[in-house]
Amino acid sequence: MVFQALRGTSDIFQAEATAWAELEQTLRAWAACYGYSEIRTPIIEPAGLFLRSIGEMTDIVQKEMFRFEDRGGNDIVLRPEGTAAVVRAFLEHHLYNQQALTRLFYLGPMFRAERPQAGRFRQFHQYGVEAIGSASPWVDVEVIALCVDSLRACGVRDLAVWVSSMGTREDQQRSAAYLRERLLPIRAQLPDYLQQRFDTNIFRVLDCKDEAVQQLVWQRIDRPFLLSEGSQAHFDTVRRGLEELGIPFDDSQAFARGLDYYTQTVFEVRATGLGAQDAVAAGGRYDNLVAEMGGPALGAVGFAAGIERIRLAIQAQQPSGAVGGREGCCLIVLHESVRAEARALLYQLRRAGHKALMDYELRSMKAQLRDANQHGFRYALLLGQQEMAQQAVAVKDLENAQQQLIRRDALLDWLSSHDS
Ligand code: ATP
Ligand code: MG
Question: Per-residue pLDDT for 207 more than 90?
Answer without folding.
Answer: no
